[in-house]
Amino acid sequence: MIHSSEVRRPPRRRRSFTNQNGDASEGDSSVTNIETMLEGASQRIGQLANFFQFLADQHEARLMVFLEIQKIEGLTIQQQLKAGDNCHMTFRKCKYFMTLPDNYKKAYIAVLLS
């Protein structure tokens, strides 16, 4: 009977790193691809952050418009609602209204209501 310690096994061959993973140039190529993907992802995250900031600014401005319209003397509740609705139709109108000095806001609302 042959004891297991007496059985000779052939020596293991060790593969070099490049043989296991392909050429080194393939590894460099993979790293370059990962870098490119990360740069693209970073740009997309920046774009998303800008978009969400735009939405937050837009929401804040729309909340403030009606408060500003209520400050204008001489408008009925119906006129305030109509002017508020008209300003809310586009962010451009809303933003423009908010940049006007107080004495111009009443005139702008009169234009919107006419």
Can you give a write-up of this model?
This protein has helices spanning 17-21, 24-71, 77-89, 91-99, 102-113. The model has no long low-confidence stretch (mean pLDDT 80). It contains five helices and no strands. It has one domain (23-113). It has 114 residues and is mainly α. Residues 17-31 have a biased composition (Polar residues).
Largest sheet properties: none
- Indicate the structural class: mainly alpha
Low-confidence parts lasting 5 or more residues at pLDDT below 50? none
Strand content: under 5%
Summarize the structure.
The protein is mostly helical and 114 residues long. Helix content is 76%, strand content 0%.
Secondary-structure map:
Layout: H1 17-21, H2 24-71, H3 77-89, H4 91-99, H5 102-113
Helix pairs in contact: 2-3, 2-4, 3-4, 3-5
